[in-house]
Amino acid sequence: MEKKKILEVRDLKKHFPLGKGKLAEGKPCVKAVDGVSFDLYEGETLGLVGESGCGKSTLGRTILRLHEPTSGEVIFEGEDILHKNRKEMRKLREKMQFIFQDPYSSLNPRMNVFNILSEPLIAHGIYKRGPELEEYIKNLMEKCGLPSYYCYRYPHQFSGGQRQRIGIARSLALSPKFIICDEPVSALDVSIQSQIINLMKDLQEENNISYIFISHDLSVVKHISDRVGVMYLGSMVELADKDEIYANPQHPYTKALMSAIPIPDPKKKTQMHAIEGEIPSNVNTPSGCKFHPRCPFAKDICKTKEPEAREIKPGHMVKCHFGGEF
Question: Which segments constitute the ABC transporter domain (predicted)?
Fold first, then answer.
């Protein structure tokens, strides 16, 4: 059975000018997202990994138009959302939600949990204040592992894991089809991380939700994802099924990332593929392949010609002149 595409991203770019108005004219830009393309399928989790500053979070925010894109296409359920006006986007946001990295700063400290969760439902006209709304909020909290009687408490009265559950509950309130999760467990203890990840997987199975899961933790990404995309300096350099990319990485940058995953076996030795040098600037990106100044396999063509994203085997995309030869 053919999988249904829920999201198509084509050559998406987000460049931030260095300055405002006339001061920005003629000046270079920060190329935070620089021509990213991929598809997301119904009920699938796509993991995004890469070093800090590679553009993972900016990509997620640009897809939902929390940042206005510079160019490209984002097709959600057959509709190009980049050409929607504010009213049309408001309606679409019922189906697309975001879980923020910091569960404390993303919650209004002056609102209790009931008001935080009910605000989008009232704003979109799904519920009016009354017993039906109260019952829905309490059921939603219990579904996310929080006692319903906590609904009149304020964010500062919860632990980090509980606040993240509130963030997840808020993203689920409108019954979305697609959620971008921006490092939702990075600030939590390992035991709490596992609870949150298992909760997200259970909710995905119940509601057929599609996730883009952004994280630095490669072990977490492997556990929750169906496919994994690797980003470097605003570009997606490799994309494949999780088992394939972890077992057989074909981009030198991906190989270095995967070799850094600790193995819980003191007798087993692994070979580290260290990356030398500093991450180049997003303003003055290197010519040719962006990774060539740090790549141990770089050749002359890498310094002058940018590689094209190509499929080296079904479902395995790599953006490297010599991908598939390592």
Answer: 7-258
- In the chain, the largest separation of any two C-alpha atoms, in whole Å, equals 69
Pick left, alpha or beta for residue 98 (phi over 0 → left; psi -120 to 50 → alpha; otherwise beta).
beta
How far is it, in rounded angstroms, from Cα 197 to Cα 217? 12
- Give one DSSP letter per residue of 84-109, joined into a string: --HHHHHHHTTTEEEE-S-TTTTS-T
Determine the Cα–Cα distance for residues 189 and 183; give it in Å rounded to an integer: 13
- Helix H or strand E encompassing 12: strand 5-17
Mark 181-215 as b/e (b = at least 16 C-beta within 10 Å): bbbbbebbeeebbebbbebbeebbeeeebbbbbbb
Residue 229: helix, strand or coil by DSSP?
strand
Domains of the chain (ranges, CATH numbers): 1-95+178-263 (3.40.50.300), 103-173 (no CATH)
Sheet architecture: strand order including 96-99: 96-99, 178-182, 210-214, 45-49, 227-232, 235-241, 316-318, 310-313
Residues in the chain: 326
The rounded average pLDDT for each run of 10 residues, N- to C-terminus, in the chain (326 residues) is 86 88 73 94 94 90 94 92 89 89 84 93 90 92 88 90 88 90 81 81 89 90 93 94 93 87 68 72 88 89 92 93 79
| Whole-angstrom distance, CA of residue 69 vs CA of residue 31 | 11
CA distance 239 to 205: 23
Question: How, if at all, do strands 310-313 and 316-318 pair?
Answer: antiparallel
